[in-house]
Specification:
Shape of chain A: globular
Number of helices of chain B: 20
Distance between the termini of chain B: 63 Å
Oligomer: heterodimer
Distance between the termini of chain A: 9 Å
Number of strands of chain B: 0
Helix content of chain A: 25-40%
Strand order of the largest sheet of chain A: 2-5-1-6
Strand content of chain A: 25-35%
Radius of gyration of chain B: 24 Å
Number of strands of chain A: 6
Structural class of chain A: alpha+beta
Structural class of chain B: mainly alpha
Strand content of chain B: under 5%
Order of helices and strands of chain B: HHHHHHHHHHHHHHHHHHHH
Number of helices of chain A: 2
Largest interface: A-B, 10 and 10 residues
Radius of gyration of chain A: 16 Å
Chain lengths: 107, 406
Amino acid sequence: MQYLVSVIDRTSSSATSAEMTNIDAFNDELRGGGHWVFAGGLGAPSTATVVDGQGADAKFTDGPFVETKEWLSGFWIIEAHDLDVALKLAAAGSKACNRRVEVRPFL
Amino acid sequence: MGEAIARAHHEEWARVVATLTRQFGDLDVAEEAAADAFATAVERWPADGVPPNPGGWLTTTARRKALDRIRRESKRDDKHRQAQMMYDDVERDSVSAVDDERLRLIFTCCHPALAPEARVALTLRMVGGLTVPEIARAFLVQEGAMGQRITRAKAKIKAARIPYRVPSADDLAARVSGVLAVLFLIFNEGYLASGPESDPVRHDLTAEAIRLTRLLRELMPQDGEVAGLLALMLLTEARRAARVSTNGELVTLDQQDRGAWDAALVAEGHRLVRERLATGQAPGRYQILAAINAVHTATGDVRDTDWSQIVALYDQLARLDPSPIVALNRAVGISELHGPGVALAILDGLQSALVDYHAYFAARADILRRLGRIEESRAAYDRAIGLAGNTAEAAYLTRRRDQLGQ
């Protein structure tokens, strides 16, 4: 079972070096436990481009799809047997990056 | 016959649902098959007689119904069968000290990833066996909305793969306390029923909460907080008949006819509290609350109440739970022990935290009344009446206000 662990943030590219060290250590734990699938940090919402390819010509629009006070600033995709395992890992991830996270199952 | 079926429903529903959930890895299948099995019992038992082992009969019948349904649906719907199979390995590896199917069911229904109101509804449906219309009525919610709430919770359990198991030892205490919170919520909704249309005490809910807590106690006899919550509920329930007057008004503890208390429930509650004290283990929140209620119910005359003991217990509770509500209750004990003046000073410090809490203003009104500060007392009663959600409480507060002199 795979879960998306999204990092909820209010500022962009704001991880301190201590946080980065903790995140690296947490990533190593994920790999060691066989839970690692993928992870990454994201640029600020202001760097986003919305693309609509539904029509004949693709349309490109500047800016995030919705303006929000909080947004996704990074994520992990983890492999876990069930939600209890995923929640435990997410709690450790939240501690490492010093931010709240949201856990959602992949279909 | 109706009685035999009702008894079987009370005693066996949770076990049938729990066993089928384990076997089929699907709460929906288990719930519907259990309902089918009980419907079959209603048809067949009057003619065939009650089977010698009703639980076994119901489980076997439910399993057959579930298999029929899965066979029907997997022909139609291959996806459903695949979802089913995802659960096959759910339980293989976990071995826990307490191993009863019903315990898994309880922990799954009270999982912290579900919204509190969903936990309550799911527990009443899957463990308690209440119907959706019954649960909807109990919480004054439309039937459709309550059905949705339960369906969504079950869908989340499936999609997010909330496991069907008793939590491991290092999570157990926290998860048990989550289960107890759900049971206490059910009890309190019965005991302090809110809403202008509602009866002041909903006996169906308090009785159901006690039944479920008894079940949990049977499954986890060593857990002190489970025993504590059961004792707290019993000692509260024991006073039910004396707590609301014939004209629908709340009767406070000091005014209650103690002869109308249920002596058997009081005795059982006291026995549980003594049992916990004898273990010498540090008590948790529910055990302390139970002990406070044991002191309140220990004498035939309110004037004999041991207030120093009550204040000492609140001191102990405040160390575990430094919430303003605990501090408020402690202050009421202080007013009996050291007088209203001392208590008022404590209440002053709590006002900003409890500015929306009717019990704060009710306590304040009473203490101001005892200090002879009538106008301030009246204002506090007004405030308390405006905030009270329970009809019997509002009626009581209104009379007290109207009895204030000039």
